[in-house]
Design a protein that fits this description.
This protein has five helices and no strands.
């Protein structure tokens, strides 16, 4: 499969050299969007699990913080610097935001 993609890109470059990188750029953008969507789904699931938690709430809170932090990092990597809108849209609780980036103490 990789060779057929390479052959296709070679053919495209012969006709229009700039189009060869356009196809690759398109694939990269698609992967970024897919990765960002997956990270958002993890946040939604973690927040739902936290809201439903009756026991083990501390663990659910730590998981939600980790997922939100990873999502924010992913957003920043693709160029989204402001998170205010997604905080409101995803209804990320203040208790989750308060501990972002904090690492749990390692047990010896």
């Amino acid at each position: 499969m990789a060779s057929s993609l390479r052959e296709s890109l070679d053919l495209i470059r012969m006709v229009r050299p700039e189009a060869g990188t356009t196809a690759l750029d398109h694939e990269i953008l698609a992967e970024r969007a897919s990765s960002l969507g997956a990270a958002e789904r993890h946040v939604i699931d973690a927040i739902a699990a936290l809201a439903a938690a009756t026991t083990d709430r501390d663990q659910r809170l730590a998981e939600a913080r980790q997922q939100v932090w990873q999502y924010f990092v992913q957003r920043e990597l693709v160029g989204f610097r402001r998170h205010t809108d997604v905080i409101q849209e995803l209804k990320i609780p203040p208790e989750v935001l308060a501990g972002l980036g904090a690492m749990p103490e390692r047990r010896k």
